[in-house]
Design a protein that fits this description.
358 residues, alpha/beta, Quinone Oxidoreductase, Chain A, domain 1, Rossmann fold, seven-stranded mixed beta sheet, 16 strands
């Protein structure tokens, strides 16, 4: 029998993080045939997003049916609502939402790595059976992971795709290490607020940017080494003073003139990673490697995310909590911008969430 006390501290922490969390009570779906979902019948402004009653999807052999507790709200959801679609024509009513967290209610015949009652989070872009703004969603089990004990299901739903995006930017593409000076442009946003924490767990020197007093104070509380207000006239001078030898790595979560001015301070051979969709795309100042990427969901990536959540003792900044029936209000809030953290739809409340809100 293995004794965890004999493991090195880092391995012991990793072993703990991979243990299967306790299962939640099973969700009965036999008697339910329909669910509530926030969907659109046509493209348009936030007001087109309304509550529908739709059939509960039946999981395919390789899918799990998740009774959702929460779903993240992203700017890409708003792009779809306004009319963006990757190819062909969408089928209306169209349920929005790419990611969320909940409890497995049913599993397909070929699914072996999950059980009913497991607490899970999932990410599926343009899910063929419907999005996550719903009481239930059916998802390919390869794009599902167990939620770490540290997070309740509201927090997990708020950071599924943003957590994958932040971690893969920091660990996979930038390969941040302790000797690096790292700049996170857009540190007050849903991805950036997680990215600075993932970078700090490598003991890197981390610079975060914000816009305005409230944003700057928010970033400062994430324990970054330096906060720069991009609205200040001396933003460039502040960066030069803090990192006179230059920057090793940049995670760019916003484009434009502010980014290009700061990229002049990236050392030759430095790295600049950015998620696809950042506009305008960064331009290399010369001898700097540009690394565009998309977040990926897989068993390996969820395992990596779980470990990082535990190692970083991650805080999940939530900008607003909105009920499923008020999804249109969440999109109206997105439209106004300057959100600190991420907006999350609360669909059900688990015991952890209720306890945390008392």
């Amino acid at each position: 029998m293995r004794d965890d006390r004999l493991l090195e501290p880092a391995k012991r922490a990793k072993a703990r993080s991979r243990r299967r969390p306790a299962r939640a009570p099973k969700v009965r779906v036999e008697k339910k045939k329909v669910m509530k979902a926030a969907a659109i019948d046509r493209f348009g402004p936030p007001s087109v997003l309304t509550v529908h009653e739709l059939p509960i999807p039946e999981p395919a052999p390789n899918e799990v049916l998740i009774a959702l507790s929460s779903a993240g709200v992203g700017v890409w959801d708003a792009d779809i609502r306004k009319g963006w679609w990757p190819e062909g024509k969408p089928k209306f009513p169209l349920v929005l939402g790419t990611d969320g967290a909940g409890i497995i209610a049913k599993r397909g015949a070929r699914v072996r790595n999950f059980s009913e009652g497991d607490r899970v989070w999932a990410y599926e872009f343009i899910n063929p059976t419907g999005g996550f703004y719903a009481e239930f969603v059916a998802v390919n089990s390869k794009h599902v992971g167990l939620v770490p004990k540290r997070l309740n299901l509201l927090q997990a739903g708020a950071m599924t795709v943003t957590g994958l995006t932040a971690l893969q930017g920091i660990d996979v593409h930038l390969r941040v290490k302790a000797t690096d000076t790292v700049l996170v442009l857009g540190a007050s946003g849903a991805v950036g607020s997680l990215a600075v924490q993932f970078a700090k767990r490598h003991y890197a020197r981390v610079i975060g940017t914000g816009r305005g007093k409230q944003s700057v104070e928010f970033v400062r509380k994430l324990d970054v080494d330096k906060v720069i207000d991009l609205t200040s006239k001396d933003a460039v001078e502040q960066l030069r003073a803090f990192a006179p030898n230059g920057i090793d790595a940049v995670l760019a979560l916003a484009g434009g003139d502010s980014l290009q001015r700061l990229l002049r301070f990236v050392r030759p051979g430095g790295r600049v990673a950015y998620p696809n969709g950042v506009e305008p795309e960064p331009r290399s100042p010369g001898k700097v490697k540009l690394l565009p990427y998309d977040a990926k969901a897989s068993p390996k990536e969820f395992e990596r995310l779980n470990d990082a959540v535990e190692e970083a003792k991650l805080k999940v900044p939530i900008g607003a909590i909105v009920r499923l029936a008020e999804a249109a209000k969440a999109h109206a809030r997105l439209k106004r911008g300057h959100i600190l953290g991420r907006i999350v739809l609360q669909i059900r409340a688990d015991k952890q969430t209720r306890a945390a809100s008392r």
